[in-house]
Each structure stands twice: as C-alpha cells, then as structure tokens.
Design brief:
Elements lengths: L5 H10 L7 H13 L6 H16 L3 H22 L7
Helix pairs in contact: 2-3
Length: 89
C-alpha cells in the first residue's frame, strides 16, 4: 500500500490531467478505452467513467421502482416454492 505523501498525490494527479483517481477507477478508465467502439483518449474515458459513477451512486426513481418490483417478485416466487404441492395434500 502506498503512502499518501504529497509527492504520491502529485504523481497521481499528473497521470490523470490533474484529477485524483484511485487504482480501481484507473483500471476502469483503461477498460473504458479498450472497450469503446471508437478510439477515445484518456480524458474522454475518464468522463465516461465519472458519468457512470454518478449514475450508479444517485438514486434514480425508475431504478428504485424496478428494484422494488424485482424484490417483490423474488419474495412471491420463494413463497410459492415453500407452499405444499397439491399432490402432497
């Protein structure tokens, strides 16, 4: 594990156009550049990754509703699996 010295922070920011980025995000940006259908530079890949992170962390009502519906269906199905079968009666 690296220590967060001023020199380390300076090097990280220099590698990422002045932005602070953890190792996991750095790998995600590299992956974004490789997976893109067209050639994109590091800055555009960082923008894509930041947009993805914003969408992932902000609660979106349609997503919340979808998750609630999925959870309700899961409970319904499991409850049905726990019920005795007609042949068992």
């Amino acid at each position: 594990m690296e220590e967060c010295t001023q020199e380390y922070i300076k090097n990280i920011r220099a590698r990422h156009n002045g932005n602070w980025m953890c190792g996991l995000c750095e790998e995600a940006v590299k992956d974004e550049m490789v997976r893109s259908e067209r050639l994109i530079d590091k800055e555009e890949a960082m923008t894509h990754h930041m947009n993805f992170c914003r969408k992932s962390t902000s609660p979106d009502p349609p997503l919340s509703l979808a998750i609630d519906l999925i959870e309700a269906m899961r409970r319904f199905i499991w409850r049905g699996l726990d019920s005795p079968r007609p042949s068992m009666l």
